[in-house]
Design goal:
Elements lengths: L6 H41 L6 H6 L1
Length: about 60
Amino acid sequence: MHNEPNPTELADQPKKKVWIYSAIGLLITNLVVVGIVAFLIHRDSVQSQPQPSPNEQRQL
């Protein structure tokens, strides 16, 4: 009796790695998308605050 893993076990290991890497990739992608959306919302909310127009700035 040898303690070598079955061919099915050898085939399952790369599948597990693919699942792990794809899950990590999806998490990173989601974090990047959420970060970009949060940045855009923050930027829009900052720009929507009343700012003097260029004409008003020239008069000062």
